Amino acid sequence: MKKVPLRKCTGCGGMKPKRELIRVVKSPEKRDADGNLIEAGSVSLDLTGKKSGRGAYVCRSAECFKLARKSRRFERSLSCQIPDGVYDEMEKELTEG
Questions:
Q1: How far apart are CA 52 and CA 11, in angstroms?
Q2: d(Cα 12, Cα 44) in Å, to the nearest integer?
Q3: Which one-letter DSSP state was computed for residue 29?
Q4: CB–CB of 23/49 below 8 Å?
Q5: Pick the residue with more confidence: 14 or 30?
Q6: Could you tell me if 8 and 57 are in contact, meaning their C-beta atoms sit under 8 angstroms apart?
Q7: Which pLDDT does position 81 carry in this prediction?
Q8: Is the pLDDT score of 94 beyond 90?
Q9: pLDDT band (50, 70, 90) for residue 71
Q10: Rg for the chain (alpha carbons), in Å?
Q11: How many folded domains does the chain comprise?
């Protein structure tokens, strides 16, 4: 029998199979040869689970997403500030998809 990878929901804190959760990903920062920051990592929903970068998982429910947003758990998991516009975009994508 194959082992099912479990991940913790950032909203409710429940352990669930990876396939049942949606990944929120912070893409890697882009730097030039001198190490100067060219582009900061952007935060988005990763519905395929294949994007590169730091990830956090959340249930497919709007309640869990709102709970994680309110308590700023995504920002803690991804070690970055997330603007409200990005949150709104992700929430819209979550409710439509």
A1: 22
A2: 20
A3: P
A4: yes
A5: 14
A6: yes
A7: 86
A8: no
A9: very high
A10: 14
A11: 1
Identity of the amino acid at 76 = R
What gap in Å lies between CA 45 and CA 74, rounded to an integer?
A: 12
- Asked if residue 84 belongs to a domain, the reply is yes
Q: Is residue 13 part of a domain?
A: yes
Q: Determine the residue type at 46.
A: D
CATH at residue 19: 3.30.1230.10
Beta strands 6-8 and 30-31 are unpaired
User: Which residues form the domain of 20?
Assistant: 6-25+39-96
Q: Is 31 within a domain? A: no
Q: What is the pLDDT of residues 74-91, one digit of tens each?
A: 889 988 888 888 888 888
- Strand, helix or coil for residue 4: coil
Task: Let me know if residue 17 belongs to a domain.
Answer: yes
On the question of pLDDT at 93 being above 90, the answer is: no
